[in-house]
Design a protein that fits this description.
With 254 residues, this protein is mainly beta. Helices cover 2% and strands 46% of the residues.
Protein backbone atom coordinates (compact mmCIF):
# COMPACT_ATOMS: atom_id res chain seq x y z
CA UNK A 1 0.00 0.00 0.00
CA UNK A 2 0.98 3.60 -0.47
CA UNK A 3 0.07 6.71 1.56
CA UNK A 4 0.09 10.04 -0.28
CA UNK A 5 -0.20 13.24 1.80
CA UNK A 6 -1.52 16.41 0.20
CA UNK A 7 1.18 18.51 1.90
CA UNK A 8 4.44 17.95 3.73
CA UNK A 9 3.45 19.53 7.07
CA UNK A 10 0.50 20.76 9.14
CA UNK A 11 0.23 23.79 11.39
CA UNK A 12 -0.22 22.87 15.06
CA UNK A 13 -3.17 25.24 15.57
CA UNK A 14 -5.81 22.52 15.91
CA UNK A 15 -7.54 23.78 12.74
CA UNK A 16 -5.20 22.83 9.92
CA UNK A 17 -6.18 19.65 8.09
CA UNK A 18 -5.43 17.88 4.83
CA UNK A 19 -6.58 14.91 2.74
CA UNK A 20 -4.45 11.77 2.60
CA UNK A 21 -4.89 9.23 -0.20
CA UNK A 22 -4.47 5.48 0.21
CA UNK A 23 -3.87 3.20 -2.76
CA UNK A 24 -2.64 -0.32 -3.49
CA UNK A 25 0.45 -0.95 -5.60
CA UNK A 26 1.44 -4.16 -7.34
CA UNK A 27 4.89 -5.73 -7.16
CA UNK A 28 6.14 -3.31 -9.80
CA UNK A 29 4.87 -0.22 -7.99
CA UNK A 30 1.86 0.32 -10.23
CA UNK A 31 -1.57 1.32 -8.86
CA UNK A 32 -4.16 -1.48 -8.76
CA UNK A 33 -7.54 0.06 -9.73
CA UNK A 34 -9.44 -3.18 -9.03
CA UNK A 35 -8.45 -3.36 -5.35
CA UNK A 36 -11.52 -3.03 -3.11
CA UNK A 37 -10.04 -4.27 0.16
CA UNK A 38 -10.75 -3.02 3.71
CA UNK A 39 -8.01 -0.93 5.33
CA UNK A 40 -7.46 -0.19 9.03
CA UNK A 41 -5.72 2.99 10.14
CA UNK A 42 -3.67 3.72 13.25
CA UNK A 43 -2.79 7.30 14.11
CA UNK A 44 -0.60 8.65 16.89
CA UNK A 45 1.29 11.82 17.75
CA UNK A 46 -0.13 15.30 17.30
CA UNK A 47 -3.17 14.65 15.14
CA UNK A 48 -6.41 12.79 14.58
CA UNK A 49 -8.57 11.39 11.80
CA UNK A 50 -11.71 13.50 11.30
CA UNK A 51 -13.21 11.76 8.26
CA UNK A 52 -12.92 8.92 5.75
CA UNK A 53 -14.29 8.26 2.28
CA UNK A 54 -13.74 6.28 -0.92
CA UNK A 55 -15.99 7.89 -3.53
CA UNK A 56 -18.41 4.96 -3.68
CA UNK A 57 -21.93 6.47 -3.77
CA UNK A 58 -23.41 3.14 -2.67
CA UNK A 59 -21.14 2.64 0.32
CA UNK A 60 -22.73 2.54 3.77
CA UNK A 61 -19.45 2.45 5.68
CA UNK A 62 -18.95 4.96 8.47
CA UNK A 63 -17.33 8.26 7.56
CA UNK A 64 -15.90 8.56 11.07
CA UNK A 65 -13.54 6.07 12.68
CA UNK A 66 -10.39 4.22 11.64
CA UNK A 67 -11.55 1.77 8.96
CA UNK A 68 -12.51 2.17 5.30
CA UNK A 69 -12.57 -0.02 2.20
CA UNK A 70 -10.88 1.00 -1.04
CA UNK A 71 -13.09 1.70 -4.05
CA UNK A 72 -11.50 1.25 -7.46
CA UNK A 73 -8.16 1.05 -5.68
CA UNK A 74 -8.47 4.28 -3.67
CA UNK A 75 -9.63 5.67 -0.34
CA UNK A 76 -9.08 8.97 1.40
CA UNK A 77 -9.03 10.26 4.95
CA UNK A 78 -8.78 13.72 6.48
CA UNK A 79 -6.17 14.28 9.17
CA UNK A 80 -6.23 17.32 11.45
CA UNK A 81 -3.61 18.61 13.87
CA UNK A 82 -4.09 18.89 17.63
CA UNK A 83 -3.73 22.40 19.04
CA UNK A 84 -0.33 23.09 20.58
CA UNK A 85 1.13 19.66 19.77
CA UNK A 86 4.70 19.34 18.51
CA UNK A 87 5.10 15.58 17.99
CA UNK A 88 4.75 14.54 14.33
CA UNK A 89 1.65 12.69 13.24
CA UNK A 90 2.28 9.01 12.54
CA UNK A 91 -0.25 7.28 10.29
CA UNK A 92 -0.16 3.53 9.58
CA UNK A 93 -2.40 1.77 7.03
CA UNK A 94 -2.94 -1.99 7.40
CA UNK A 95 -4.81 -4.65 5.46
CA UNK A 96 -4.68 -8.44 5.63
CA UNK A 97 -2.14 -9.90 3.20
CA UNK A 98 -0.65 -6.49 2.42
CA UNK A 99 2.51 -4.78 3.58
CA UNK A 100 1.81 -1.96 6.04
CA UNK A 101 2.31 1.61 4.88
CA UNK A 102 3.51 4.36 7.23
CA UNK A 103 3.90 8.12 6.94
CA UNK A 104 5.18 10.79 9.33
CA UNK A 105 3.72 14.29 9.04
CA UNK A 106 5.69 17.01 10.87
CA UNK A 107 3.85 19.80 12.68
CA UNK A 108 5.11 23.36 12.51
CA UNK A 109 4.39 25.93 15.22
CA UNK A 110 2.16 28.89 14.38
CA UNK A 111 0.85 31.90 16.26
CA UNK A 112 -2.43 31.05 18.03
CA UNK A 113 -5.54 32.36 16.31
CA UNK A 114 -7.03 35.60 17.57
CA UNK A 115 -10.53 35.21 18.96
CA UNK A 116 -13.26 37.78 19.43
CA UNK A 117 -14.06 38.28 23.10
CA UNK A 118 -17.07 36.22 24.19
CA UNK A 119 -20.03 38.43 24.98
CA UNK A 120 -22.62 37.94 27.66
CA UNK A 121 -25.66 35.90 26.77
CA UNK A 122 -28.71 38.05 27.52
CA UNK A 123 -32.37 36.99 27.47
CA UNK A 124 -35.11 39.59 27.83
CA UNK A 125 -38.33 38.40 29.48
CA UNK A 126 -41.18 40.29 27.85
CA UNK A 127 -44.26 38.07 28.07
CA UNK A 128 -45.83 38.36 31.53
CA UNK A 129 -49.25 37.93 33.09
CA UNK A 130 -50.47 39.66 36.24
CA UNK A 131 -53.02 38.57 38.80
CA UNK A 132 -55.92 40.61 40.04
CA UNK A 133 -54.98 42.99 42.85
CA UNK A 134 -55.63 41.46 46.26
CA UNK A 135 -56.19 42.86 49.74
CA UNK A 136 -54.71 39.74 51.39
CA UNK A 137 -51.41 38.06 50.58
CA UNK A 138 -52.02 35.48 47.81
CA UNK A 139 -50.14 32.24 47.15
CA UNK A 140 -47.32 33.25 44.75
CA UNK A 141 -47.39 29.73 43.23
CA UNK A 142 -51.11 29.54 42.55
CA UNK A 143 -51.88 27.80 39.27
CA UNK A 144 -53.32 29.57 36.26
CA UNK A 145 -55.89 27.62 34.27
CA UNK A 146 -55.23 27.59 30.53
CA UNK A 147 -58.66 29.06 29.88
CA UNK A 148 -58.40 31.73 32.58
CA UNK A 149 -58.83 34.98 30.67
CA UNK A 150 -60.37 37.01 33.50
CA UNK A 151 -58.44 36.80 36.77
CA UNK A 152 -55.02 37.14 35.06
CA UNK A 153 -54.19 39.65 32.34
CA UNK A 154 -51.17 40.22 30.04
CA UNK A 155 -48.69 42.90 31.09
CA UNK A 156 -45.42 44.29 29.79
CA UNK A 157 -42.64 45.30 32.22
CA UNK A 158 -42.21 49.05 32.18
CA UNK A 159 -45.76 49.96 33.14
CA UNK A 160 -46.58 50.17 36.84
CA UNK A 161 -49.93 48.90 38.07
CA UNK A 162 -52.46 51.03 39.93
CA UNK A 163 -52.91 49.25 43.26
CA UNK A 164 -56.49 50.45 43.74
CA UNK A 165 -58.43 48.26 46.14
CA UNK A 166 -55.55 46.13 47.37
CA UNK A 167 -51.89 45.73 48.29
CA UNK A 168 -50.70 42.64 46.42
CA UNK A 169 -50.18 41.61 42.81
CA UNK A 170 -48.36 38.64 41.23
CA UNK A 171 -46.36 38.81 38.01
CA UNK A 172 -45.86 35.46 36.25
CA UNK A 173 -43.84 34.31 33.23
CA UNK A 174 -42.60 30.99 31.84
CA UNK A 175 -39.48 30.66 29.72
CA UNK A 176 -36.76 28.24 28.60
CA UNK A 177 -33.24 29.50 29.39
CA UNK A 178 -30.48 29.64 26.79
CA UNK A 179 -28.06 26.70 26.81
CA UNK A 180 -25.42 28.67 28.72
CA UNK A 181 -28.00 29.73 31.30
CA UNK A 182 -29.24 26.16 31.70
CA UNK A 183 -25.69 25.03 32.42
CA UNK A 184 -24.30 27.93 34.45
CA UNK A 185 -27.32 29.80 35.76
CA UNK A 186 -27.25 33.57 35.52
CA UNK A 187 -28.27 36.91 36.96
CA UNK A 188 -31.94 37.81 36.86
CA UNK A 189 -32.08 41.60 36.59
CA UNK A 190 -35.23 43.61 37.30
CA UNK A 191 -35.00 47.29 36.40
CA UNK A 192 -37.01 49.89 38.34
CA UNK A 193 -38.96 47.63 40.68
CA UNK A 194 -41.44 49.58 42.81
CA UNK A 195 -42.77 48.00 45.99
CA UNK A 196 -41.62 45.21 48.23
CA UNK A 197 -41.07 42.00 46.30
CA UNK A 198 -40.56 38.26 46.59
CA UNK A 199 -39.06 36.23 43.75
CA UNK A 200 -40.22 32.64 43.33
CA UNK A 201 -38.76 30.28 40.73
CA UNK A 202 -40.28 26.85 40.11
CA UNK A 203 -42.16 27.05 43.38
CA UNK A 204 -39.23 28.11 45.58
CA UNK A 205 -38.52 31.57 46.95
CA UNK A 206 -34.99 32.58 45.99
CA UNK A 207 -34.98 36.29 46.78
CA UNK A 208 -36.81 39.15 48.45
CA UNK A 209 -36.52 42.92 48.77
CA UNK A 210 -38.02 44.71 51.75
CA UNK A 211 -37.65 48.27 50.48
CA UNK A 212 -40.59 49.67 48.53
CA UNK A 213 -38.54 52.48 46.93
CA UNK A 214 -38.05 52.17 43.16
CA UNK A 215 -34.71 50.52 42.41
CA UNK A 216 -33.03 47.89 40.25
CA UNK A 217 -32.94 44.39 41.73
CA UNK A 218 -30.61 41.51 40.84
CA UNK A 219 -31.05 37.90 41.97
CA UNK A 220 -29.04 34.83 41.00
CA UNK A 221 -30.85 32.40 38.69
CA UNK A 222 -30.05 28.75 39.53
CA UNK A 223 -28.95 26.45 36.70
CA UNK A 224 -31.62 24.17 35.26
CA UNK A 225 -32.61 22.71 31.90
CA UNK A 226 -36.41 22.60 32.05
CA UNK A 227 -38.90 25.39 31.37
CA UNK A 228 -38.73 27.83 34.29
CA UNK A 229 -41.67 29.51 36.00
CA UNK A 230 -41.03 32.90 37.60
CA UNK A 231 -43.48 34.52 39.98
CA UNK A 232 -42.89 37.96 41.47
CA UNK A 233 -45.13 38.92 44.38
CA UNK A 234 -45.33 42.71 44.76
CA UNK A 235 -46.59 44.39 47.94
CA UNK A 236 -47.38 48.11 48.02
CA UNK A 237 -49.71 50.60 49.66
CA UNK A 238 -53.28 50.55 48.39
CA UNK A 239 -53.84 53.36 45.90
CA UNK A 240 -50.16 53.64 44.94
CA UNK A 241 -48.47 52.55 41.73
CA UNK A 242 -46.18 49.51 41.92
CA UNK A 243 -44.75 46.61 39.96
CA UNK A 244 -42.09 45.93 37.35
CA UNK A 245 -41.21 49.36 36.05
CA UNK A 246 -38.45 48.39 33.64
CA UNK A 247 -36.87 45.67 31.53
CA UNK A 248 -36.46 42.19 33.03
CA UNK A 249 -33.48 40.25 31.68
CA UNK A 250 -31.15 37.34 32.39
CA UNK A 251 -27.41 37.74 31.88
CA UNK A 252 -24.89 34.93 31.80
CA UNK A 253 -21.12 35.05 31.39
CA UNK A 254 -20.21 32.48 28.74
Amino acid sequence: MQIIADRKTLANDGWDAMPITIQVLDSKGRPVPTANIPVDFEISGGGRIIGLGNGDPNSHEAEKGNRRSLFNGLAQLIVQSNEGEHAPIKLVAKSAGMKDATILIPLHAVTPRTFVQVLQSVMVLEQWRASAISKVRPDPNQKIDDNDMNSWFPVTPGQLQDMTGGRYIIYRTTFKPYDSQQKNGGRLIFQKVTGKAELWIDGKMIGARNNAVTADWTVNLPAGSRDRVISVLIEAESGSKAGLGGVVSIETDQ
